Amino acid sequence: MRFAPLAAALLFSSFAATDAPASARESEAAALTVALIKPVERQWPETIPASGWLKPWHEAVIAAEVGGLRVTDVLVDVGSVVSKGQALARLADASVRAELRKEEASLAIARAELAKALANADRARKVQGSGALSAEKVTDYLYAEQTAAATGESAEAALENQKVRLAQTIIVAVDDGLISARSVQLGTVVGSGTEMFRLVRQRRVEWQAEVPARHLSRVRSGLAATILESGERRLTGVVRLVGPTVNPDNGRAIVYVALSSETPPPAGLFVTGQIELETWTALTVPDTALVLRDGLAYVFAVGPDRRATRMRVEIGRRRD
């Protein structure tokens, strides 16, 4: 495809020359030196503007599972990067350990009682029907065996429960991530379910971008997005999820964009950017080749006679 060269938009003075008679134009010497360019076809993505908050991908709440215990150690603070299973805080465990020893003793007693009941039941089975023991006594021994076995199982379960409580006195991270909030202090007596920390899982921050509802049907998962963060830092991402509802107050829907940066920006920032919809072939010229007058756009096309003629054009989107 061939294009006529365009004169850069420095030719404001050429309006008079273009509209003047040919004889007058021929007698005039060139007053300005201009550069010539040719329109270029480029692969140009269609974009829609969007704005929204940077928020954690998932935020986990880490709470105490046992109540009535005092915090003896706080091992991390806000901003700490932690691994799954890492200790974050410790609770006083003296009372839990005492209960554990008590349950261990109860289990030992239950096992002794079970051994005695098993011995009596075995003897009762051997003499059953011989008349050495009454049928009622034999039945009592057999029932005692079953009761002792159930008591032993109950004691084992109680001991396991205390072991679990002891493990819960160490508060651990539920996933890899970043501590975003801490609501516990050294010496605090916490209750069961008391929130102690908040964790940004995997340190992943996403852009919850709001887009006009009229574009919602064209936005889908996998589309590229660009964010202009404060400080002129550009972030890229991919649409992860399109919100299923539209806010009736402003007619906008939320699009969730997963960021691809290895160093995630801080959550809580309000940023603007754009989402790329489709890529088209566009005929482009630099902004400097355009002359805007009375709301209309013009370019100057240079003909074979090396003279510039003003030509009205329709312009579309701008990019960089």
Brief overview:
The chain has 320 residues and is an alpha+beta fold. It contains four helices and 19 strands. A hairpin with a 4-residue loop joins strand 14 and strand 15.
Task: Tell me about this structure.
This protein is of the alpha+beta class and 320 residues long. The chain is 25% helix and 39% strand. It has helices spanning 14-19, 22-27, 94-127, 135-167, and strands spanning 6-7, 36-37, 40-56, 59-63, 69-74, 81-82, 87-91, 170-172, 177-182, 189-190, 195-201, 205-212, 224-229, 233-247, 252-259, 270-284, 291-293, 296-302, 308-313. The strands form four sheets. It has a six-stranded antiparallel barrel with strand order 3-12-15-14-13-16. Strands 1, 2, 17, 18 and 19 form a five-stranded antiparallel sheet that branches. Helix 3 (94-127) runs antiparallel to helix 4 (135-167). The model is unreliable at 1-20 (pLDDT under 50).
Question: Topology of this protein?
Answer:
Elements: E1 6-7, H1 14-19, H2 22-27, E2 36-37, E3 40-56, E4 59-63, E5 69-74, E6 81-82, E7 87-91, H3 94-127, H4 135-167, E8 170-172, E9 177-182, E10 189-190, E11 195-201, E12 205-212, E13 224-229, E14 233-247, E15 252-259, E16 270-284, E17 291-293, E18 296-302, E19 308-313
Antiparallel strand pairs: 1-2, 1-18, 3-12, 3-16, 4-11, 5-7, 5-10, 6-9, 7-8, 9-11, 12-15, 13-14, 13-16, 14-15, 17-18, 18-19
Helix pairs in contact: 3-4
